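ARCHIVE CARD
Drawer: 12
Card no.: 0347
Subject: one protein chain, sequence and derived structure
Cross-reference: see card 0346
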Amino acid sequence: MAQLKGKGITFDFSDFESKMNGLNDKVDAAVNMLASTDAAELASYMKSNRPWTDRTGMAKANLSATVSKPSKHEIRITLAHGVYYGIWLELAHGKKYAILQPTLNTKGKEVINDFEKLVKKVLS
């Protein structure tokens, strides 16, 4: 809190560190929430836009987008198949049945834009 004293201003920063830590926690929570929301949207997109015809439905059902935090300053969304033959869908037949890279190509900029909007909101 600032106080006028004589010809100067005195600032009390005793609770500054705790307030900054609280802000860090809020930003982390917002980033995690945004990443989780975007991951859910990416998984849904992959399931809706897969280029193969389902036989058993297992490949579609096991497409996933998961959020992890490899380090304090890094968040990761990983797209994956959950079936053993997912590698063949991605790489065989000239990548005709791929969905992971096409999803990144189509939706990646939207995810980046979402995070840029969040950063601008936090900094304004």
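Annotation on reverse: Residues 15-123 form one domain. The mean pLDDT is 89.
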